[in-house]
ABC transporter substrate-binding protein
Amino acid sequence: MNPIYFQLRALFQADEPHYFKLQQLSDQWLCTPKQTKRRLNMLQEQGSLHYIPGKGRGNPSKIVFTHSLKDDLDQILQQLLATNDISGILNLLDFGFPTHFFDRYYEKIQSLFGLQENASAEIKLPVIIHRPLTTIDPIKAAVYRESFILKQLGDTLVTINERKLAPAIAHHWSIENNACTWRFFLRKGVKFHHGKTLTSQDVAYTITRCMQKGANTFTQLKNIQQIELISDYEIVFHLEHSEPFFGHLLANHSCIILPEDIPFDEKKFISCGPFKLNHYGTTTVSLKAFDHYYGFRALIDEIEFFIDFTDSSKLTDYEQVQTNNIGVEFLIFNQKRDTVVNDLHFREALYHLLDNQQLLKDLGADLGSPASRYFPKESALLHKSLTKAKAALKKSTYNGETLHLGYLPMFQKAIHQSEWLQKRAEKIGISFKRIPFTFNKEFFTSSMEKNMDMVMIGDIPMSDDELSFLDFCTNGTLLLQRFLSTENQNHLQEKVTHFKFEQDTEKRWTLYQEIDRWLIDNYFLIYIIHPHKQNLVHTMLHNNPMNVAGYYDFKNVWEIPTKKK
C-alpha cells in the first residue's frame, strides 16, 4: 500500500478534478513544496493520477484521479485481505475514509482480529491498543501499558503477593544484619530468550543499571552500598542503612533481569519472561511464547498488539469492558517555572475551582468517582465552591497573565476536562492556554518543565499499593519529581526515606497518609477523579481474571476455547 497516495485520496475524496494550492498539500504531507511536486510527479508516473501544475505564482494546481475512490479502496482491500496484512488494514482505516466503503469487507476484516489457530494448532491472539508504545526500556518505562508488557517479557528477582514478597527468579532469600544485608538464591537453569543461562552476574548488571542516574529507580536504590557475587546462583546486597522494604523495590518492573553479555536494545529486547519479543514496529508489536521459560509455558503462542484501530465498533469478537476506579487523575503544578503557580494562595484557588463533583455532573458520572486521595479507598467527598476560589485568588499575586495548561489530546475525556477547567477558570478571571502533549513526543523531554505551568494527567498503580505510591513519589520520569522545587524534592525524599526504612506495615501505611496529606495540604497537586476505564477485550478472554487496572496477564490465561475444526 502506498500511504502517500491514500493520504492524498483521504484529503480529496470526491472523484471529480481537484484544485489546490501547493502549500496546502505540503502542510498535509509535512514536506516542502519541492518535495510535494516530486511526489505528485511520481504518482503520475505510476498512473495513479494526472497532475497539472498551476501556471504563474499563486495559481491553483489540478489533480485528476485515474480511478474512483471506490475502485481504489476495493483493490487495496482485496490485496491486504489476501495477504492477511492486518497492519496495512489498520493504516488504511486510520486515514478516515467513510465507513460505508468498508461495509462489504468488515466480516473478513473482523475475522483477522479473532482468535486465530493455524495448521500447527498455534493460538494467536490479536490485541487492540489506541496509542503507540513509548519505550520498553525497563529503567525508562513510566506508563502502565509499557510496564504491563515488560512483565510479559521479563521477570524480577521477587514478586509481591498480598503485600508480601514471593519467589520469582530468586527461589529463596534471607534478611540479615538488621535488614542491612539481603541475600538471594537464584533458580538454576533459567534461560534468557537468546539461550544464555541466567546467573548472578546478570542480576548485578541489571540492578547496577537501575542505580544509574536518570533511571526510574535511581532514587529508590540509593541505599545500596555494595553488590557481592558469592557464586553464579547467590548474590548479596549490602545496604548503608537498615531497609526492611528493600525486597519490595526489586519487584519493580524496572528491575526485570537483563543479560549482561549483550548491549541493551529495546528493539531486540532480551530477558527471561514467558514471552519473547518477536516484532517491534510503529503500528504492531508481537510477542511469542518462550518455550524454555522456567515457569509454566504460556497457552497463547503469540500476542500481536495492533496500534490505533480507529473503528472498533464492528469487530464482533471484541467487547467494551468497564473497570472502575483505575488509579487517579490529578492536576499538578510546575514549580520549576517562575510563575504564579508558586503562590500557595493561587494553588488554593485552583483547588476550590476544580470541583470534581461539579465536573462529573457537567461531563457525566461515567468518567469516574471523585478523588481526594491517591487511593480510591481513602477518598472522600469534598465541598468546594467558586466563592472559596475567588477568596483565595484575591489573596494571591495573580495579575491576569495567561497560564499554560497541559493535557493529553489523544483522550477525548482529557480534552473535555481541560476545556471544562479552562471555562470554569474564566468565571473567576483566570486565563488558561491549553497546550497538548503526548507520551511519545513531549512527555519524556524537558519541554514539559519549560513550557507547562500545570498539567492534567493520571497515574495507574503498577503493582501493590505501597510500591505504587513509592514509585509515584520517587520515579524521576514522572511529573511529581520533575515539577517539585529542589527544596520540596528534598522534603519529599526525607519523608519517603522514613517510609522505606519503617519495618512495620501498619506504620508504613500511616507514613503514606502523611506524605499524601503533605502533597494535598500544600496544593502541590489536586486529585480530580478515580477514572472508569473502557477496554476493548476479546470475548475469548472473558473467563480469565483481569487485574485491577483492567489488563489480562497473558501468561496466566488458560481458558481459551480454540476454533472448531
